[in-house]
Design a protein that fits this description.
By secondary structure, the protein is an alpha+beta fold. The protein contains 6 helices and 12 strands. The strands form 3 sheets. Strands 1, 6, 7, 8, 9 and 10 form a 6-stranded antiparallel beta sheet that branches. Strand 4 and strand 5 form a beta hairpin.
Length: 196
């Protein structure tokens, strides 16, 4: 029909006809664009490793089978934050924390996968000064907010779902990483045509 709208069908629907491309995609930077933090996906040192910058010492550790960082929170207090997601794979891997209001924040302390060390990702206009909590450039500020700054390019079929009334996010995606339909668009009509 003329007014038909294509929908997202998932990578498995693509792989059945495009096996070579699917095999080449597996393990790629697009495949690792974003993942749930796990023993299979985390490459940083979480064995009680510490990183200090401008008097703030952050510690990366594991507890109850999960990955954590003890660092400065949005209120300036040192707290434990659960690392829910990994972001990227090479030359660095970043780590993300989900807050109760649905905001997902990207830590500025990142893992250098080549030199095997923690380092600080500086904003381009701030290099040698401390970024205070409350500053939009602090890791808990809008400048490091995944929902608005990063998600659309790192996940497939992203819906931000920001609720102004509650100032919260209910962000969803059909696939966590950069899959086939991120670039090629929703494939339901393509699949339907190929199968007919």
């Amino acid at each position: 029909p003329k007014d038909a709208v294509a929908t997202y069908v998932g990578r498995e629907s693509c792989a059945s006809c495009h096996q070579t491309e699917f095999t080449r995609w597996e393990g790629s930077h697009h495949d690792h664009a974003m993942e749930l933090a796990s023993d299979e996906t985390v490459v940083g040192d979480f064995d009680d490793a510490t990183f200090e910058r401008f008097g703030v010492e952050s510690r990366f550790f594991r507890r109850d089978g999960k990955y954590w960082v003890h660092t400065e929170g949005p209120d300036g207090e040192m707290q434990d934050f659960h690392i829910k997601y990994t972001f990227g794979i090479e030359p660095m891997q970043q780590y993300m924390v989900e807050f109760p209001d649905g905001r997902v924040q990207v830590l500025r302390i990142s893992w250098d996968t080549r030199n095997k060390e923690w380092f600080y990702v500086y904003p381009t206009d701030v290099v040698n000064e401390r970024i205070e909590p409350g500053d939009p450039l602090h890791w808990t500020g809008i400048g490091q907010n995944w929902n608005t700054m990063c998600a659309e390019c790192h996940s497939t079929n992203l819906q931000k779902n920001y609720d102004l009334a509650t100032d919260s996010y209910h962000t969803t995606f059909s696939e966590i990483d950069v899959s086939c339909e991120t670039c090629h668009g929703p494939a339901s009509m393509h699949v339907e045509m190929a199968e007919s």
